[in-house]
Every structure is written in C-alpha cells, then in structure tokens.
Amino acid sequence: MIIIFPMQKKEIITIHDIARKAGVSPSTVSRVMNNTVPVADNKREAVLAAVAALNYRPNILAQNLVRGRSMAIGILTQNIASPFYGEIHQGIEQGLKDSGYHPLFVVGNWHLPEELVALETLTMRQVDGIIMLAGTIPDERVRQVAATTPLIMAGRWVKGLEQQCLQIDNIKGSYEATCHLLQLGHRRIVLLQGVLNHGDAVERRLGYEQAMREANLEIDPQLIIDGQFTRQSGLLAVEQLLNRNVFFSAMFAMNDEMAYGARLVLYRRGLRVPEDISIIGFDDTVQSAYTTPPLTTIRYPMFEMGLQAAQAILKLIQGETVILPLLPTQLIVRESTVRYHQ
Amino acid sequence: MIIIFPMQKKEIITIHDIARKAGVSPSTVSRVMNNTVPVADNKREAVLAAVAALNYRPNILAQNLVRGRSMAIGILTQNIASPFYGEIHQGIEQGLKDSGYHPLFVVGNWHLPEELVALETLTMRQVDGIIMLAGTIPDERVRQVAATTPLIMAGRWVKGLEQQCLQIDNIKGSYEATCHLLQLGHRRIVLLQGVLNHGDAVERRLGYEQAMREANLEIDPQLIIDGQFTRQSGLLAVEQLLNRNVFFSAMFAMNDEMAYGARLVLYRRGLRVPEDISIIGFDDTVQSAYTTPPLTTIRYPMFEMGLQAAQAILKLIQGETVILPLLPTQLIVRESTVRYHQ
DNA sequence: CTGTTAGCGCTTTCAT
DNA sequence: ATGAAAGCGCTAACAG
C-alpha cells in the first residue's frame, strides 16, 4: 500500500509582493527590514503593515548568497556526546544566541583524519568563522585556516596564534589540586596522567611537580601512571598500579573521567574512598557531584570557555580585535578527599 | 595598540571561470559537477581538469538559493549537554553523514517558550526537515509543522502522526526491570517516577504495574514516589521516602539520572547498594557502567534512535514513505541488584 | 529619502 | 549533447 503524504505547498511570498502591496520599491522594503538607512515614516509603516499582513519572512538563502555570508559558525568539536564538551557547547549556544549566527557542529573525535574531514566540511559550508575545540590538527594547518577565516582555538595553545587561543590555567589548577592533597597530609600521591603529548596533560604535570617540589618531596616515578583521559584507561592504569603493590594514600587524576575509572577499581579491590584512598579529579564534570562519594575536583570553566569563544569569534568576524583571558580554575572540595591518617 | 589582523582575501572562483578554462558553457560545468545528464567524455574531462587545476568548489549558498533547499536538518533537542541526548545526537550525526545534509541543533530545555522559539529559528532557517526529540510542543502544533515540513518525532507519540514517531517499547522495558527485581525475590519495590504527564513516565508506570499484578502483589501507594527525571529530584524524593520510614528492599528508578540521586542519599544514610537496597535504572547512560556499584539498568537505544530518525527524515525528504519500528530495550544486569535476603 | 539597475553563483528549461 | 537565457530572492551602489 502506498501512503499518500500530503505536504502543503507553502506559497513563497517575496520582497516584491511586499513592495507591491506597500506601494514602494523592493529596495525600500529591504531597507526597513534591515534598518540600514532611514526611511520615511509613512512608507516604513506601510511596509511593516504589508509584512505583517502577508506574514513575510525574508529568504535567508537569498540573503546569504548576496551577502556572501552563511551566518554559520563552524564548531570543530571532538565529541558531541560527552558531558565535558557538552557544557562548552552550551556556552557557545548561549554566546551565539541572538547574534543571527548559528553553530554548525562537526566532530573530530581526537582523530586527525576525521578532524580534517570535519574541517573540510566547514570550509565547504562556507562558515563565517570557526571555533576549534582543541583537537589534533597540526599547528601549521590551524594557522593556515586562521589566515583565511576568523578562528578561535579553545583549550589549546597554537604557536603564533596565542591571541586567538582561549585556555585555562592548567598549571595553577593542577598545582592547587596537588596542594590540597598535600595539605591534608598526603605524601604518596599518585598522578594519573592523560594522553602524554596532550597540552593539558603536559601543563598539569607541571603543576603537580611544582607542588611536590615546594613540599620538598621528590617525585617517585612509580607513582606516575598513564591513562588516556577516559574512564576505561583510568581503570586499567590503576589496576596495574595496584598489582605492583606500591604504597600510596591519595591520587590526583588529570580528569574526572579517569577518576571514575580509578574509583571503580578501588571499589572492586575493597579499597574505600576516601577512608583508604583520597581522590581528586579535574574538570568537575556534571556527574562528579553525584558519584559516591561526591568527587573533590578542580573546576574547569567549560561553559565560560564556550561563551567567551563565541563572543570572541563574533568580534573577530566584525573585524574587531579580541583579548582573551586565561580562564581560572577552582578547587571544589567534596567528599572524596580526607586527611591522611596512618 | 591596534593589532592589524591580516586576513587573506581568498579570491572566489566561479563556475564561469571553469567554463571558460574548459572551453564549455557554465551549464555543462554544472552538469558534470552534479552528474545530472550525460556529457561528452572529452568535455567532461576538460571540466574535471579545470576544476582540479583551479581547485574549484561550488558555492553552496548559491546552490541553496537556486534549489530552494538549505541542506540542513533541524534538530529540536532538549539538552545539548546531556549524555542521554548526546548519544541520540551522535546517532543523528552518523545517519546524516555523507548525505549532504547537516544537523542544525536548537535546544528547547523541556520548556515550551524556548521550544517554540527554537522551532521558529528552524523555520526561519528554512531547514529541509525536522527531527524533534520529544519536548512539550503541543500535538496540534507538531501536526501543523509536519503538514508543511518533513518531520520525525523521536521519543514521543503524537496522535495522528504515529507513522512519523520513533519510540521505544517503554512498557516492556519497564516490565522487565520490575520482573528482574521480582525474580530476585524482592517484594517491596519502590517506583521512582519521572515527570507525571510525560509519556515515558506514563508508559513505564504501566510496565511496573503489569509486572506487580502478574506477581500477585498489590501496589502500595507508599512505594510510588515522584521525581522529575533529574538527579536532584531523585535525591529529594528518596530522602523524603526514607524519612517516612516505609520498608522496601529494592527500587526501580525511571531513569538512571534519578537512580544516581537515589544512590547518593542511600550512601549518605549508610544504606548499602546492593547489600541493603537493590537499584535498577532505565536508559543505560554512559556513566552507569562506572558508578559504584555499576548500575543495573534497562538500555535505551539512544544511538539507534538517532540513527533511524536521521535515515527516516532523509527518506521523507526524498518523498519516500517510512516504516518506523518500535525500538527494543534491553536489560543490562550489573552490580546494583542482588537477591533479596532477610 | 527612494526607485532603478545590476548582479551574488548556480541550475534549469528551452531550443538547437 | 550542449549553449543561451532566465531567473532563485535579495542587497547595494548609483542616480536622482
């Protein structure tokens, strides 16, 4: 059986219809629609009346063509389903709201070939600006893109493009995380690292080292373990650590996701958090307030980053210059860390 | 100080340039670019050569205008940062990949005014099709939209539009969740409900009742408590329940988020999961495998739903008819549920 | 202040 | 099979 699917053909009403009905020229209609140059009050009203009467909506496709703009901002993100990126996306949404521009998301999955395809999609779609959320596209390529299109890089430094990079103070955040543990009396502090050549991981390592150094503790390589910023990798890394039987009383995971994984192994091995092991994470992902116990962590201002990236790209498009701040982090003390006791 | 920001002016090369270089007419170029009608081999090659030489990319904005299509699919979603919707979005991404269409996300936040604005944005942007992810827009309005634009509704039934609705088997899933608990010997099973007039909540209630009835248990109103599908609401509801001192050994939360909230209160009150209380959720959000203990739940095929919604909308746009399946759920037994023991 | 005139870059009849 | 011509709906000089 064939189902007939009636789709009302909506008749297109154009600027000419309005012009005719209002007794003016199309240009005048355009002028009042866009508020570009003054128009006599009586004509303006006539136009507005006609617009209302015919429920006229300018054809964006036509506007885009003639203006040579797509009114879209390309967002090269890495993961469209993660809570972390999700919050950044929300910030971007917010920042673009009422600007007339809309976000066009393409995802790279931290995977160069995909990212390149995604970037290609963006240029094909002729976006008016690009916000890149970190990723693995080589600096050189990023610079090339930035040379032809307004671009903001969020969460990563690109050499020679520092003024268009929006980043958090990783070192400070990581330093504070480690200090928090130190202040609680912990000495044997595991560092659960993220992807090694990743900028965030590098900087956070620095913060950890600085804090340890200031506490006159030397860094035990046995306490440094590697993950990939994923739950799974955190779980695996800590599992191996436990098998090696090295003593520690606290752990700093370079992000909350890995902390979740770590927390699960500890649970499975009968180690209690925080009674036996204290854990601090990084990011303050939305879930972290509801884990058991709620996770102490360093807040990554994701929403703020998205918001600022959006505002900045709009300025760049307008030809204005931007001054991007180094976004601050914040220690959020919850229940996964306690004072060290024998 | 004013920073000069040099933006290379990329010179636009058009179909005419190609035509000239290939010694053919623009129409012919268009024909080979779009493979619409046969073109003599030698001319085709000349065109292709010119395209390659000049690195020509058709101007999508112009194509859109003349074709009267935006090549965008509007996605009216409720939350751009939630892992639940996130997975659906991923499915949509996937389904739209290589179709030439791209998703245009607008968010409604389960808030009618916002949803209406979002919908307006979509029509203003002249999307070629719409995927609505549930939400609170009245059925009547949805039908109106569907009358003028290809539309798929995911996660909700709309009367008279059933063929365009993609939904899961809520009753069965909920029935199985309850049966799971019943089979483990639980009798006093709390039902942590979601928003009352929400279709999913209504259907899941039905599944619970059916299972209880078949087990010859009558439903104790004291065991039915209300949440809003959020972590916070789950926490509050269970807190109140605990204060009322009614006995129960298991709980079925209508979604995982509420289960997280519930789990946290229990933790705070010193009640162990699963030793004292068994919990089963619904959705199988990405986090659920990493809570402590990992959460037993009913899998909601989010990715699949997104994928199918995308494929369906593409067919609808092509004028084809679609037959949407009732998506199955699946019981995922993890560690938050155990056999009841005195 | 406002109408006329050209297109934006592409697709698509319509002839040939 | 292919070129010429006519727009898609709108904006933006350019005169007046």
The proportion of residues in beta strands of chain A is 5-15%
> How many separate helices of chain A?
12
Mean pLDDT of chain A: 95
Count of all domains of chain A: 3
Instruction: Indicate the CATH class of the largest domain in chain A.
Output: Alpha Beta
Low-confidence stretches of chain A: 1-5
Largest interface: A-B, 58 and 58 residues
Q: Superfamily at the CATH H level of the largest domain in chain A?
A: Response regulator
Structural class per helix/strand content of chain A?
alpha/beta
What does the largest sheet of chain A look like?
Answer: 6 strands, parallel
The CATH architecture of the largest domain in chain A:
3-Layer(aba) Sandwich
Task: Give the end-to-end Cα distance of chain A, rounded to a whole number of Å.
Answer: 77 Å
* H/E element sequence of chain A: HHHHEHEHEHEEHEHEHEHEEHEE
Output the strand order for the largest sheet of chain A.
Answer: 2-1-3-4-5-11
How many β-strands of chain A, per DSSP? 12
**Assembly state of the chains shown:** homodimer
